[in-house]
Design brief:
This protein is of the alpha+beta class and 528 residues long. The chain is built from 17 helices and 19 strands.
Length: 528
């Protein structure tokens, strides 16, 4: 699947009739493709850049109930989210795991520590799972030695889920394609089609992949859903919708786990505005964030962290881990994502609701907002909204698994470590055995100190729809986030593995390598 030449093959089939077109290949579009394909609908998903290149590869990687949404009174969102968390933890072993969380409280915090306790009781009751426990300051420092004792009054330990967000999107899309759906990356919707004054019934697609830039086609379906996240207003403008979205940028800093050694997530209230800031281990590095600021610049695919956000995150780390003496020089990398929320004009962006919205305008259904965690619910609510217009008015069974069962770990090769087998099964699903078979000598080893294996690069280059080098290094295998310098120092070995798989000549490799290096500097490091 998706081996060399696959995009041309898909392109040649685009003029056939479809039941449903989904615009946007982030988690929302992927979830809709998954559920629609399952219901037997001939579904096409088109993504203007790479799959998961929008916000869905730039999240805080949490599969969570959103404890902080309780504070805003969003009980229903929290209830739905904790239940989805439990489902995803059950179905997504190896991709979605449970991670300990420490909520730490300082004397000068505006919110007393007992308030968290009340929130956690509600959180656990909603999940029907008792998992939290109160700790004294000393108890917390035993669990997390880098914590300062200055002003620390204690806190709580509880559990939430963690995920590789881009791999979750990829797994959903690939399982949908295996189940009969169709998906194409670098296929940008330039315009919407309609018959006379009827509802929207198609899209104009432009092929954005470099070799064929400019190819255009009209594609038709009775139902078109826009799952374009923070870009949703652009398509809505075509059907006369007034702009309703507020774009909020959230950024993270990346540290090596030697400079910020954490084995659990630490949640701290920011000393300036009492917003929660998280520092958490992920894929062998430690991420810290996020910010929540209005994003004014043009909506580029790769937004970048701004100096004030760096200062904001560092201030929180400095208060909580002063003995580590962290400075901006310790920052190994950074990434930013844009959240779309309905603009109600609140002065504090963090007060805007995170619930998803559905808008139907001239037949175009837009679904945006929400969370990574609740993608399955969003897919169901979007599909129910257009059900009457779908052939055969299909039903969507909310009880079905959303992820296919992964291959049994014993099928993956007996000489591989059990934890590694689980990781590969979770990330690659039923492709994991083929990934292992494709590996050459020495490739089932980690890439330097990273958790990813060299073999993952070969497999992704061969069979995961990579169009540009950043698709491979930022989203298929997350070297751009987890490796110092974004993995640039290993480009020679990466080239020897992936260039033949991708079929690129030397000139193409040089161009891709130089574009990746400059993109990483500009948008994934503080140098930009
Ligand atoms: P996107 O992922 O942005 O996908 C939209 C896609 O549409 C893009 O890939 C874009 O290229 C494509 N597109 C746009 N226009 C067109 C067009 N004309 N033609 C074709 N394609 C087009 N949620 C959680 O549950 N847990 C978290 O820990 C979490 N952390 C977050 C941290 C941050 C900083 C942010 C910003 C959000 C976080 N969220 C989290 C929320 C979550 O990440 C988002 O709700 C989710 O990723 C949005 O997915 P989406 O598919 O709607 O949008």
């Amino acid at each position: 699947m998706w081996e060399r030449g696959w995009r041309d093959e898909v392109w040649s089939q685009l003029s056939r009739p479809w039941d449903l077109i989904v615009i946007g290949g982030g988690i929302t579009g992927a979830g809709i493709l998954r559920e629609a394909t399952r219901a037997g609908l001939r579904t096409l998903l088109v993504e203007g850049h790479d799959f998961a290149s929008g916000t869905s590869s730039r999240s805080a990687k949490m599969v969570h109930g959103g404890l902080r949404y309780l504070k805003n009174g969003e009980i229903r969102l929290t209830l739905e989210s904790v239940r989805e968390r439990e489902r995803l933890l059950r179905e997504g072993r190896g991709l979605i795991g449970s991670v300990g969380q420490l909520m730490v409280s300082f004397r000068e915090d505006k919110m007393p520590v007992w308030v968290f306790g009340v929130g956690l009781i509600v959180y656990d009751l909603l999940a029907l799972k008792w998992g939290h426990r109160r700790y004294s300051a000393e108890g917390l420092r035993e669990l997390c030695p880098p914590l300062t004792d200055q002003g620390l009054v204690g806190g709580y330990r509880y559990f939430d889920g963690q995920v590789d967000d881009a791999r979750l999107v990829l797994r959903l899309i690939r399982e949908s394609v295996r189940g009969g759906g169709t998906a194409l990356n670098y296929a940008f919707v330039e315009g919407l089609l309609r018959q006379a004054s009827g509802p929207i019934n198609g899209v104009v697609l432009r092929d954005m992949a470099s070799e064929t830039n400019g190819r255009i086609i009209e594609v038709h379906a009775p139902v078109v859903i826009s799952a374009t996240g923070a870009w949703a207003d652009d398509l809505r403008a075509e059907v006369g919708g007034r702009r309703r979205l507020r774009k909020l940028r959230g950024s993270h800093l990346i540290f090596s786990s030697t400079r910020l050694p954490l084995s659990r997530t630490v949640t701290m209230m920011h000393p300036q505005d009492a917003r929660p800031v998280f520092a958490f281990p992920w894929e062998g590095v430690v991420l810290a964030g996020t910010t929540d600021v209005d994003h004014r610049p043009q909506m580029e695919t790769d937004p970048a962290i701004q100096p004030a956000e760096v200062e904001y995150i560092m201030a929180s780390l400095d208060r909580t881990f002063p003995d580590l003496g962290l400075t901006a020089k310790d920052v190994q990398g950074a990434f930013s994502g844009i959240r779309s929320v309905v603009d109600t004009g609140k002065a504090d962006p963090s007060k805007e609701s995170r619930e998803h919205v559905l808008w139907e305008e001239e037949g175009l259904l837009t679904v945006t907002g929400g969370k990574l965690t609740t993608f399955r619910l969003m897919a169901h609510s979007a599909l129910r909204a257009v059900r009457a217009r779908l052939p055969g008015q299909p039903s969507f069974d909310p009880r079905r698994r959303v992820l296919d069962p992964p291959p049994p770990e014993r099928c993956l090769g007996s000489d591989l470590d059990a934890a590694l087998c689980m990781r590969l099964a979770g990330r690659y699903g039923t492709d994991a055995p083929a990934l292992i078979t494709a590996a050459r000598a020495g490739e089932l080893l980690p890439i330097d100190s990273c958790m990813a294996l060299w073999a993952e690069l070969r497999w992704a280059a061969r069979a995961e729809g990579v169009v540009h080098l950043d698709d491979l290094l930022l989203r298929r295998v997350r070297l751009g986030l987890i490796a110092p310098q974004g993995g640039v120092q290993w480009l020679d070995r990466i080239r020897s593995i992936v260039q033949p798989e991708l079929g690129w000549d030397d000139a193409r490799w040089d161009r891709e390598a130089s574009e990746y290096t400059s993109l990483w500097k500009r948008c994934y490091s503080l140098a930009g």
